Each structure stands twice: as structure tokens, then as C-alpha cells.
């Protein structure tokens, strides 16, 4: 028995202390306590009893039915009873102190001891007298009689309630911790130092990596298994940085078994023990693939805003600029830094619009509507530009307007093109009107020549009769013929007057009205329009001098071009190229109309600008002989000159020079 009973050091210590207090040895103390002098066997038993009584370990002896045959004070104290109460307790009640839920643990222990076996470290709960539960750690041994039969059971029941509570709390907190860690989407992990063995990894690692959690508890350190091979350096960097600074953060891609690449952001830090020695590395890894995608998308959108040709401006609710893109800078000349915090209306205000205009704009956007409009603003360098602008109010989740986004397009060029087109259309209709008038003049003149025929032939006949038969005619008949001549002359003159009036009114004898005209467009229009009426000619316009606009009278100029181009075609009956050249010298505009037609006889050249003069060689070609006189008049009204260079059979060039 002695070798089984462990005398606690505390028991021995109290015996030693008492012996010291009484100034004797432990042996003397024990001898004195064992009075009357016992038999050696009794002495032995008493010694044991003394030891057991003073033991700090709860010790009890039980009959085979479980009833108490002995209990030391500590044992009784553990169960909340007095020693006497335990000794008087019926066996059934003593066994009943075992917690009902732990019967299945405790009863087999008793059974085994009854069967002669020693059982160590059985843990179960017992119910104290006050109803509280106490955890005990039982070591039980059978006590045999001289025949070797088991007659009693000795138990040493240590109170382990506190330990159990701590364990439970620990278990609970660890379970709780694991539950928490496993429920988070991020991976919580921990590795040893310095050999990087996995200590812990939370279950999110499965979702992120597509591998089972077991894989992470064996072999290589956690992230080495999955990191994208091209980014293996990231791990070394993390470990190096953690070792050096205690902290590191990196983003790197990982490869899932299905080949999908995902991005993780790993934050790791060093955990030290109480002595400050590095103990382990713990970390959190988050799947940032979606964040990166969102970020990429945002970056893409941002780049789109940056790159777009439209100027974009974001202003706060009070209209102060917060952001502008490079197109805005290109359009206005103001950089982001210069524009930020400014009011756009003040920044680029041209002064063209009154306060009413801006207040309507503000009312529109503040009421949540989109404002669209075209306005001319002023660049940083003072020049004007026209923009088409859409201002959209932006609301927050509460529906309040927080910002305005203005998208602007520089339409200065478009406006210019539109104006050019308009100008083009205007010039075209002007030219067509000239064509019609010219046509009318031609018709009027041919009608005149036809209508004059009747009175002239009447006059001619009357004159013939008079001169041939003058002597034979009576005075009365002579008078009749003279009257007829007079009437017909009168009629012819009236006809001529009417025609001249008509021609004059159509030629619109007006004073010179110079204005800035797109001469380039007017020349092109003239060539295009004449082309439509010509057959077998190639009409070309060449702006040799790169002239765009010029101050001329567009009606007169249309007339010049119309007549010269019409003649060039008319007097090139075999077809061929007719070219209009626009050129300029320092102080003159030069127009050349070049054909490769009949040419003009040098004898005719001095007369061709006279009204109704037509060269004898062109009688077969219809004409009035008025065109060049009209051209000359138009040129002179510009204070310009006209001359002709011509070679019969080779062609003609008319050169008009107008002061700029
Ligand atoms: P029209 O052409 O009606 O005869 P114009 O006054 O325009 O009257 O021309 C006067 C004359 O000048 C023409 O009749 C013709 O003899 C001559 N002429 C004008 N332009 C040309 C030309 N490009 N080539 C040859 N002759 C021309």
C-alpha cells in the first residue's frame, strides 16, 4: 500500500514543520503521536492514518458497495460534507454523489477496481452536498485481505474543477475563435519561425485556393503551394520584411488547381513571446481579385474619362470645380490645378450672356434636370470657343444633388464648318441667280433681235419703194410711207428701250458692296455649277495662292466668274480642260480663266470688251456680245483690271486682278 499511496509533499512538509515547532524529529513526533506504544503493525497503520489524515489530497476508503469506511477531512471538504456525515452515509447515497451524466464513466472504474485492477486518472463529476458540481480526478486501487481478496477500495479524488473550468473556457474560446475565424472570408494563418511550418490556417483557404485545408497542414509553408510561380519572390519578401520590421503586406496572384488565377493580399506580422523572442508569424490573406477587377474597371473608366475627346468637368453642388479631364485643359487652357475650386462661369465666362442666362441654367440643374446648350466661352489665352454642353446633376443615395457633371464638346470648328456650309449654300444660290439673269439677258437680246426684224423690214420696204418709185408716187402715198417708216422706227426704239431697261434692271446696276467673302468657296461653286451645264469639258479649280476669304462684292464676282467660265466652255467647242486659278500677290487677288479653245484673233482683242461686239469667227456660236462688257464693268467697279492672252487655235486666258 505504501508504494501506491503518494504522500503529498504538503503532508510531509506539515509533519516536518510540526516536528520543528516541537523541537523533535519527525520520528519522535510520529512516536509520540502513536501512544500507547503500538505493535509494529499498529504503528505502521497509525502512521499511515496519520499521514492520510494530514494529507492535502482527498483520500477515502470504500466498502465494495461503495459505502464509506474512511474519508479524510480534505475528501469530505471537497464534497461539502463532514467526515462523520460521510461515514454515516448509506452506500447508495454515497454512490449517488456521482453526477448522473458521468455514471457511465465512474461505475466501470469501480467495477474494474473491485475486479482487482488499479485505475488511474479517471475524470468525472460528483455532486456536492450543496448541489454544486465538482470535477474529480480519481485514482482508485483495490485493497486486499491476507487471502488476497479485494475487500476495500481506496480512492484518491483530486478536485480538478478549476482546471476543468479553465479547459472548458479554453475549449469554448478556441472553438469560438475557430468558428469566428472559419466564418470570415479572409484566411487567417500562422506559421512557425524560422522553419515556416503551418500552425493554423482557417477554412477560407479552401474557398480562395480551391484546395482542401489538409493540404495546408503538410509540407511546404502555406502560400508556397499556391503562389503564382512568377511571383514566388513575394513570399521571400514578406518573410524578410516581417523578420526585419515585424510587418509586411503584399499582393500576389495565386493559381487554383483549375488554372484560374486569383489575387490575394497578404498581411503578415511577427508574434513575440513574453521575452520578446520571435515566436511565429501570423497573417491574414484576402481574395482581392474582385477588388482588383473593380479597381481595373475604375481605372479603365478613369482612363476613358481622361482620354475622351469630350471635356469633362465635375463640380460640387455649389458649382465649384472638383475635377476636369485633359480634354477640358485642351479646350480651355486651364489645368486641373488651375481649375480646381473655381467657378466655371467665372473661369471661362465670355461676357456674351447675361445673369438671366446663367440663372436659368442653374435653376434647371438644381431642379434635377439636365441642361443642354451651346455657348461661347473664353479660353485662358483670351480666345473664344463655342462648346456644346450637357450638365447632369448627380444624386447621392438619399436623392440629394451632390455634384454636377458637365460634358462639353468644342464645336468651334463644327460651327465654322456649319457657317461655311451656309455660306456655300448662299453663294451657290447667288451664283444660280446670276446664271438665270444671264440667261434672261440672252433671251431678251435674242427676242429683241427677232422683234426688231418686223419694223426694220417694214422700214426697209417703205424706204425701197420711196427711193425706187419716188417720182411716180403721189404726195399722199409718199407721206403714207414716211409715216409708216416713222411709226416703225418709233416702235423699234421703244423695243430697244424696253430691252435695255430690262437688261439694266437684271444686271442690277448697283453700287459696289464689298464684304468678306469665302472666295475659295465661291470659285469652287462657280466651277461646280458650270460643270453641270457643260458637256465634254473638264473643269478644274486650283487655289494656287491658298486664298480663303477676301473682301469683294460677291454679286459682281459671281458675274465675272460666270461669264468668263461660260465663254471658256462656249469657245472650246471641241471640249478639253477649262481651269480656274485663284492666286494672290502681296496686294492683289488674281483670277485666271484658262481654256484651250478657239482663241481670239488679235484684231478682235481690242474690241471684245465693247458691248455687243462679237468676233466674226464666232458667228456660228450663239451670243449677245454683252458678257465681256459686263465682266469689265464688274472688274472696274472693284477697281481692278482685266486682260486677255490668246493664241488662235490654241486657247485663251483671261486674267482678272483685284486689289486686296
Ligand atoms: P458673247 O460671248 O455673247 O459673244 P462676250 O462679250 O462674252 O459675248 O464675248 C465677246 C466676244 O469675245 C465673243 O463673241 C468672242 O468672239 C470673244 N471671246 C470671248 N471669250 C472668248 C474665249 N474664251 N475664246 C475665244 N473667244 C472669246
CATH topology of the largest domain: Heat Shock Protein 90
Strands in their spatial order, largest beta sheet: 2-1-5-4-3
Shape: rod-shaped
Low-confidence stretches: 1-6
Tell me how many strands there are.
Answer: 22
Number of domains: 5
CATH uppermost class of the largest domain? Alpha Beta
| Rg, nearest Å | 62 Å
Q: Which ligands occur here?
A: adenosine-5'-diphosphate
Structural class: alpha+beta
**Mean pLDDT, all residues:** 87
Q: Note the total helix count.
A: 20
Characteristics:
5 domains, disordered N terminus, Beta-Lactamase, 44% helix, alpha+beta, 660 residues, five-stranded antiparallel β-sheet, binds adenosine-5'-diphosphate
What's the arrangement of secondary structure elements?
Layout: H1 9-21, H2 26-33, H3 40-54, E1 59-63, E2 68-71, H4 73-79, H5 83-88, H6 91-96, H7 103-114, E3 119-127, E4 133-144, E5 150-159, H8 161-183, E6 187-192, E7 198-201, H9 204-209, H10 233-245, E8 247-255, E9 261-272, E10 278-287, H11 289-307, E11 311-316, E12 321-324, H12 326-332, H13 336-339, H14 344-348, H15 355-366, E13 371-378, E14 384-395, E15 401-410, H16 412-469, H17 475-507, E16 515-518, H18 519-533, E17 537-543, E18 549-552, H19 554-570, E19 576-584, E20 588-595, H20 627-637, E21 641-647, E22 651-659
Parallel strand pairs: 17-19
Antiparallel strand pairs: 1-2, 1-5, 3-4, 4-5, 6-7, 6-10, 8-9, 9-10, 11-12, 11-15, 13-14, 14-15, 16-18, 19-20, 20-22, 21-22
The chain binds adenosine-5'-diphosphate (ADP).
